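User: I'm putting together notes for a lab meeting next week and I want to include a structural view of one of the chains we've been expressing. I don't have a solved structure, so I'd like a prediction I can at least talk through. The sequence is below, exactly as it appears in our construct file.
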Amino acid sequence: MTKGLKSLLTPWTSQFTNLQQELANVSTIFDNLDKATSQIQDQLKDLDRDIGADVSQQTMETLDKFNKKVSDLLSFQKELAQFKLTAGQITATINQMTDLVNTVIDAASAPMTVDALIQMAMRGDLKDIADIVKLLKVATDLPDLIRQLQSSLPSVADFITNFGQKSQQIRDALAEILAQDISGLEAKAKARVSSIQALFQGQVVSVVDKISATFSTASKLLTTLPIGRGGVSVDIKVASYQRWSFISMDMPCLRTDHLKFRLGGFTRSVPYPEFYRCPYSEKIPWPNHHIPYIAIKFT
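Assistant: Thanks for the context. Below is the predicted structure for the 299-residue chain, given as C-alpha cells.
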C-alpha cells in the first residue's frame, strides 16, 4: 500500500521541480527582452531625429503606424515584466507544495507498529479490518495534503494563464511589426525601418519564442497534475479474496479380492483385502484473505 502511494506522489514532486525550473528562467528571459528592446528604442529615437518632418504624407502615416505597433509591444512588455516579481512568489508557493508532498511520502514510509495495533484494540477502536489503515499516518495526512494543494494550485494556474495571455499579446504585436509594409517609404526612412525590423527579427523573435515555450511547458506540466482537474475522494476500504491449494498424491486404497480353491471335490471362494496405490487430489480452502487499502479517486 505504501509503495503504491509513493508511486502516486513521487511524480508530483518531479512535476513541481520542473515547474520551478521553468519559472526560474522567467527572470533571465525578461532581462534578455529588456536588453533587446532597449537597443531598438535607441534606433527609434534616431529614426525620429533623422527623418524629421520633411517627408511625404504616406511616409509619415506609415511611420506613425509602425511606431504605434512598436509602442504596443513595449507596453505589453512592461506588463509582462510584472510577472518577473510574481514569479518569485509563485516559486515559493510551489516549494511549499513540494514540501507538503514530501511530508506525506515520509509518512507513507512510516511502519505500522504492533504496539500501536494493540493500543488501538484496547481502546476499542479496532472494529473493522479497515480500521487498521488508520494507524498509518498517511491515511489522515493524504486528504489534508490534497486539500492544501488544491487551495494553492489556483494561484499557480492563474499566474501561468495570465503569463500565457500576455506573452501571446507580445507575440502578436511582434508579428505585426515584422509584417509592416514599408514598400511605400522614402529611401532613408525605409532603410531605417528595415534596420529596426531586422533587430526585432534577430534579437526579439528568439526571446519571444522562449517566452512562449516557457508558457507551453509550464501549462502542460500543470495539466498533468490530477489534483487540478476537479474533486478528489479518499476512502479506506478492504479487499477480500479466497485462497486455496490443490494437493495431489498417491494414497493406499483397499479393495476386496477372492481366492478360489478346491478341496475334496468342493470349490470354495474366500474373500481377502488387497491394498493398492491410487491417486488422490483435493482442493483445500484457506481462510479468506483481507487487505485494507486506501482508494483515491480523482474526478
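A couple of points you could mention at the meeting. Helices lie at 2-51, 57-109, 114-122, 137-179, 187-223. The radius of gyration is 39 Å.

User: Perfect, that's what I needed.
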